[in-house]
Every structure is written in structure tokens, then in C-alpha cells.
Specification:
The protein has about 400 residues and is mainly α. It has one domain. The chain is built from 16 helices and no strands. α3 packs antiparallel against α6 and α3 crosses α15.
């Protein structure tokens, strides 16, 4: 589907948006892999060079999650349409995230019971099942069972609030969108400054961040609404034809520079604030390039496939990495052995993600994400040639 432009400053016509932002779909897998790489350092898989790898990969996990949060706001806005209803939107999002979440929660509970001998904790289990764990300041609650599911707790807030937030943002004049982005970025940078007022507390593993700082800056749902809203605003900027300061290549270079700079700033700023502008510009520039029909290897079929399974990969990787490393392989004694172990776990995780996507995530989305009444309504609209885009663009949003 085509999109016409009037140069960098002209309007991007939104009546006929591209059905898929293929390059952004491909980029999702790199974000998921960055989180995987971070966790290899977190559990100590680099004999002989562990301290160095801690420094190299410390920013990787935060970059990956930040990318997903901004991308969620961007893609949901890009694919939103006036004919959609709040009920239909919520239904799609529920059937997108909960099948993968509940599958991996059950797997985590079984592994905890069978391998670690830990019985089900009623309070923690309920909070995790209903994705409420990130509202708790206690790391033991947020990280229990499948620890990476804390991010879905934030995403659930995003999805619940999205229809209301969109109604507000749609009232902003296009010329003022950048001002709002700048204001949110200032707030994001302010939060680490505010945490300096917290009383001193023990630091977390290989960082200068405390548990309370990690929660209040990085894992609490309300502060992460700011990233999500930046993504919404950037999508509106692209859709309304506002000029971007950098193209795709320039934004990618800025991400690399910010990643390197993370070594020289307090970790509290590296958690979110340092990367929000580079990642946001990269997402916006990539979407604009896709909309203008510019080809990219990120939009190739293999990369899109990897992007499609990236949500399942993200949900499985921590469990398989930890239990594979500790129970199947054991700690490696050499760096070469560690890389062999990581490669094996990576391949197995990718296989599990493919099974999850093929047998659970995708079939459930196809069967249940749209109600029978909405399907009938959509069929009538399509017959009348009213709808010009696919109805499930937001199914590729980061979760």
C-alpha cells in the first residue's frame, strides 16, 4: 500500500498506511536478543572476562526493553483507525499477550517446583498471573516466576490507557507535537534526579543502582508510560509529515553513541533516560523509510519471521537460559565453552519460540482476537471497499 509525501515537511497521507512496518518488525528481534545477551552477563556466563562483559552488556537489556516500550506506542498509533472500538482494541491486546504469558508462567511454576523445590506462593502467583507484579516495590515479587513478565505488567497499563491517551494526543496540533516530546523527555530525565533523594540502600548486582531506584525508574508502570507516550507522539509526528532531525542511518549512529556513553554516566540515567531519544528517533526514521517504500534488509522475510517470534523468544529466554545453564550445561570453565553453551541455549530458545508462535500465539490471535460480530462488520466494510489497511497491524507491536 502506498503512502505519498510532500518532502520532509509535507504531510504523510494517513488514509492508506502500509499494512506492515516490516523493518521495525525485523528490528524487534535484535531488541529481544539484546535482552538475552544482557541476561547471559547477569547470570555470569563469561569466565575470565566477566567484569568486562558486565560493562559491555549492562546497557543491552535496558536498550531492548526501552525499544519495546517506545515501539508499542508507535505501532499502536500507526495502526489505529477511527472505526476501531475500545472493546475491540482491548480484546486484541488481551489475546496477544496472555497466551504467551500464561504458558511461560506455568512453565516457570513447574520448574520452580521440580528443580528448585519451591512451592507456589499464592500472593506472588496471583499478582503475576494478572500482570500486577510491577506495581510492587519488592524485587522478589516483580522477579518471581518468569521474571521478564514484569514488562507485560507495564504493557497492560499501556493497553488499558491507550484509547484515552490517543483521544488526548489527537487534539494536539501537529506543529506542537515536538514540544510535547521534549517535555516528556525532560520529565524522564528528571526522575533519576529525584531518586537521589532516596535514602542509601544496598546496590544491585554489578551496578550502582538500588532496588528502589530500579523500580521507580525502570520497572514501575507509571514512569514507563512516559516512554510509551513518546512512541505515540513520534508516530503522530511521522503520520502528520513533521520533519525528523535524523534519517535511519543517523539515528542508528546516535543509538551506538548513546550506548557507548552509558559507560560514563550514572546507571540510573542509563536505565531509561539516556536511550529514549536515540531509540525514539530510530523507530520514527525507520517507520518513515518503510512508509516511503525504501527497502531494507531488516524487512526481509527471514528478519520479519524473527520479529514475529521475538515476543515468544523474549518470554522463554530467561527460563531456558537460567535452567539450561545451571542444570543441563553447568558453568563453563573457558570462554569458548561459554559461547558454545550460549549458542546452544539460543538455538533451543528460538525453536521454543517458533513452537510457541506457531501452536499457541498465532492460532489464538487468529481465532479469538476479533469477535464474531466484528468479523461480520469487517466483512461488510471490506465488501464496500471502506477499509484500506489490514485489521491487525497492531498485533506486531512489542509486548
Amino acid at each position: 500500500m502506498d503512502i505519498t509525501t510532500k518532502g520532509d515537511a509535507g504531510p504523510l497521507r494517513t488514509e492508506s498506511r502500509p499494512a506492515q512496518l516490516r523493518s521495525l518488525t525485523g528490528m524487534r528481534f535484535f531488541a529481544a536478543f539484546m535482552v538475552f545477551a544482557f541476561h547471559t552477563a547477569f547470570i555470569g556466563m563469561y569466565p575470565g572476562v566477566q567484569d568486562t562483559m558486565n560493562k559491555v552488556l549492562w546497557q543491552a537489556g535496558f536498550l531492548g526493553v526501552g525499544f519495546f516500550f517506545i515501539l508499542s506506542g508507535f505501532v499502536l498509533t500507526w495502526s489505529s483507525r477511527p472505526s476501531d472500538t475500545t472493546r475491540a482494541f482491548w480484546r486484541r491486546r488481551v489475546f496477544k499477550i496472555f497466551p504467551n504469558h500464561l504458558t511461560t508462567f506455568i512453565a516457570a511454576a513447574l520448574l520452580l517446583a521440580l528443580v528448585d523445590g519451591v512451592v507456589l506462593n499464592g500472593r506472588d502467583a496471583v499478582l503475576n498471573i494478572f500482570l500486577l507484579q510491577s506495581w510492587a516495590p519488592d524485587m522478589n515479587i516483580r522477579g518471581n516466576y518468569n521474571g521478564v513478565a514484569w514488562s507485560l505488567s507495564c504493557e497492560l497499563l499501556f493497553y488499558i490507557s491507550f484509547p484515552l491517551v490517543m483521544r488526548w494526543i489527537n487534539k494536539i496540533r501537529p506543529q506542537r507535537l515536538w514540544t510535547w516530546v521534549g517535555g516528556l523527555v525532560v520529565v524522564i530525565f528528571t526522575i533519576p534526579f529525584l531518586t537521589m533523594l532516596f535514602p542509601s540502600a544496598p546496590l544491585m548486582t554489578f551496578s550502582d543502582v538500588t532496588d528502589m531506584e530500579m523500580w521507580s525508574i525502570y520497572q514501575a508502570p507509571l514512569p514507563r508510560m512516559l516512554d510509551f507516550t513518546v512512541g505515540i507522539l513520534l508516530a503522530r509526528i511521522v503520520l502528520t509529515g513533521q520533519r525528523l532531525p535524523l534519517g535511519r542511518a543517523g539515528a542508528a549512529v546516535l543509538v551506538v553513541i548513546a550506548y557507548g556513553a552509558s559507560q560514563f554516566v550514572p546507571h540510573t540515567f542509563g536505565l531509561v533516560a539516556l536511550m529514549v531519544v536515540p531509540l525514539g528517533l530510530l523507530i520514527a526514521a525507520t517507520a518513515k523509510a518503510d512508509a516511503e517504500g525504501k527497502k531494507s534488509w531488516l524487512g526481509s522475510k527471514p528478519m520479519v519471521w524473527l520479529g514475529d517470534v521475538s515476543f515468544a523468544f523474549y518470554m522463554w529466554h530467561s527460563l531456558l537460559l537460567w535452567y539450561g545453564y545451571m542444570t543441563v550445561f553447568g558453568p563453563a570453565t573457558t570462554l569458548g565453552g561459554a559461547f558454545v553453551e550460549m549458542a546452544a541455549i539460543f538455538v533451543f530458545t528460538l525453536f521454543a519460540a517458533w513452537l510457541q508462535y506457531s501452536l499457541i500465539e498465532h492460532p489464538i490471535m487468529r481465532r479469538f482476537s476479533v469477535s464474531k460480530r466484528d468479523k461480520e462488520k469487517k466483512a461488510k466494510e471490506l465488501a464496500a471497499n471502506v477499509i484500506t489497511i489490514k485489521p491487525s497491524d497492531d498485533d506486531r507491536a512489542a509486548a
